[in-house]
Design goal:
Number of helices of chain A: 11
Order of helices and strands of chain A: EEEHEHEHHEEEHEHEHHHEEEHEEH
CATH superfamily of the largest domain in chain A: L-amino peptidase D-ALA esterase/amidase
Helix content of chain A: 25-40%
Strand content of chain A: 25-35%
Number of strands of chain A: 15
Largest sheet of chain A: 9 strands, mixed
Oligomer: homodimer
Distance between the termini of chain A: 50 Å
Radius of gyration of chain A: 22 Å
Largest interface: A-B, 64 and 64 residues
CATH topology of the largest domain in chain A: L-amino peptidase D-ALA esterase/amidase
Number of domains of chain A: 2
Shape of chain A: globular
């Protein structure tokens, strides 16, 4: 990063690595045995922003959080998360339960319920066991501490193979600040239990409006740049809290350092979600360049990334440029196939409207790896986008077909 | 059909069942051994219409056919089809080869090349064996006859399990006419070899402009209402030819009888394509009603039909209303989940924002069948759409992953 006004280095810990945050994790009784309650608290109300599922079927906590962020103008004292039950498709009872989770947390911490974000992840169509939460939340609040972020990352898991956390230190001319985070999600592998939740924290000082703009940028290149099967859940949420405790203030001029730090953590967590999907044997980066606009390039990249035929071909290490090109062609974005190129790794398979089939054996060998790069040039402009996905295995089908509601 | 101004009855044969059409089939040498060349001829130039792939990567014959239909104003004497090679992504040589196929057919039949439609299906990125066609087309033209439509239906196959043909007689107050057809396609199971081609014929008399409008309507409810995996190929084409030889003239007032006859044949062929897909164990009709607009209802139906999670759940006989509702919710069409209902068969699984999980065992039993109906009410209007798809099996992944280019 020579010549750059900031540098980034990995550090230990996760969501409670930045100054001003504590966390706790409990087994309160929603799941049969595992950790099922996580609490993340800021020492004082933190600047906050959230991004939520675009699905028109939104779970009760999502609607509550949107209302709370609007009411406080983006000031959050705590986030309470339960796993094992999504509190989605639960009607008026679900709305009341989400509100009670916020009230319980607010009472335990001595802050207004409006300063509490609520997240639930797990089975949908089932009501929360509120008795478990009425007992568990106050206990969790009493055990808040630094250094136990990993336990919180475990408590938010559903079908995840393991906890996902990451943290970095960003050094700028104005000083250092830390960014941490945790996430859960394993594609939509078992969608009744597989919301994507992401929690980012920083001890930089930043106003909520700028924080929100930065979060939207970061999400576009991390959590919103991954696609397992094109499905999105009722509960998907991403939050960022900024405590300001590092003493480093971020403004428009220095926002790039914060954006880069958050992106580093968010992309690491997002890639862990892709790699952790059941049945996943390969992670696939689909880069589309030469797009007339960024949305056009993104649409092509997403269509390729979600093509069953592309995903199964990659699983079988088949250098099938025809499937990649055909997926690009049906994305609804006009381009001239004679201007297009298709690369697998750095192996050129299609150019000037014609294949290079002599390169197929080389590409087949490359596709045996576990991280695959596909590149498509559209030849329509200068915009480029990268989207991350995974291969599609028979194991995926087995898991999703055998799961019973 | 009591009280209706027309009635429809199945009859034998396929594309050459209507008066005024003959067909031929040959093995000319593009494939190693099977039939690979089909010829469909009208005794005199027939009114014609065509619908082609929306993919921006279009094969050479598709571009040729579009130009020929425009040049003749929709008058076609013959359609020549080869299987085994798609003549797609073949550059200038491919363009020249498609033109030569039309010229060879025109010379053999004594008509302008512009009155010939050309179709190719098979491997992409490989040039046609023109020597085989230079010999085969004149021979095929000499063997044109009635009563051998089934052979033509076999000659257009690639990965299809079997030939697909159907024919009906439509009785109207003005007299009877016949509609026939053949098709090939097996989803995009092996997309380098799996174009969807459809050929409809009728001996009704109808002007090309009206015929085209009717074909668009028919395609919307048949070939364009099926979706295996959301992929569309470089070569997909659907044609209709009308010889007029029945003496029954179709105008705006009587167009419904023609539309119904063509739809009957087209839907039968389209369903055969769905059912014939490799790894398919169930055919699934997704009906969305209560849509604000037809495109909105269609978008929701297609999103449900293409959801991997819905398709794998159906494969495993899992009555997972949550996956269906979540897919509806991410289709980009606003609706109120509290107004929505989800049925599997006639079993109500979701209503008033809440599940009826007591019905799950009944629904699981229903899902063991091989034809499944899913119904989603949006509660936003009065428009409805049905889309047809199939389940997603581990077999699908195995076939598509093991295929090698």
């Amino acid at each position: 990063m020579a010549g750059s006004p900031y540098s980034i280095a990995a550090t230990g810990g996760g969501v409670a690595a930045p100054e001003g945050f504590t966390s706790a994790a409990r087994h309160c009784g929603i799941k049969a045995s595992a950790l099922d309650l996580a609490l993340l608290a800021a020492d004082a109300p933190a600047a906050a922003a959230g991004i939520f599922t675009q699905n028109f079927v939104k779970a009760a906590p999502v609607l509550l959080d949107q209302a709370h962020l609007a009411a406080t103008g983006g000031r959050v004292r705590a986030i309470v998360v339960n796993s094992g039950c999504a509190n989605a498709c639960t009607g008026d009872q679900g709305t009341a339960d989400a509100a009670e989770m916020a009230a319980l947390t607010g009472a335990a911490l001595g802050c207004p319920a409006e300063q509490v974000m609520v997240c639930s992840t797990g089975v949908i169509g089932v009501n929360l066991k509120m008795d478990a939460l009425r007992t568990g939340i106050p206990v969790a609040a009493k055990t808040l501490a630094r250094g136990q972020g990993l336990e919180a990352a475990k408590a938010i898991m559903t079908t995840d193979r393991g906890p996902k956390e990451h943290a970095v230190v960003v050094t700028t001319p104005a000083g250092r600040f830390t960014v941490g985070g945790m996430a859960k999600g394993a594609g939509m592998i078992e969608p009744n239990m597989a919301t994507m939740l992401g929690f980012l924290t920083t001890d930089a000082a930043v106003e909520p409006a700028l924080l929100r703009r930065v979060l939207v940028d970061v999400a576009r290149e991390s959590f919103n740049a991954i696609t397992i099967d094109g499905d999105t859940s009722t509960n998907d949420s991403l939050f960022v809290l900024a405590s300001g405790r590092s003493g480093v203030t971020i403004d428009e001029a220095s926002a790039e350092a914060l954006r880069a730090g958050l992106k580093e953590v968010a992309l690491e967590l997002a890639m862990a979600i892709v790699r952790g999907g059941e049945g996943v044997t390969k992670v696939v980066g689909v880069r589309v360049h030469g797009g007339a606009t960024e949305p056009a390039a993104r649409q092509v990249a997403r269509t390729i990334a979600n093509s069953l035929l592309v995903k199964t071909a990659i699983h079988g290490a088949d250098p099938n440029w025809g499937r990649i090109l055909a997926a690009a062609g049906r994305a609804g974005v006009p381009f001239n196939p004679r201007e297009a190129t298709v690369h697998v790794g750095d192996i050129l398979l299609f150019e000037n409207g014609l294949p290079h089939d002599d390169k197929a054996p080389l590409a087949a060998e490359y596709l045996k790896g576990d991280t695959i790069h596909i590149t498509v040039r559209l030849g329509s402009g200068t915009e480029e986008v990268t989207v991350w996905t995974c291969d599609l295995s028979a194991e995926y089908v087995r898991i999703n077909g055998e799961y019973r509601t």
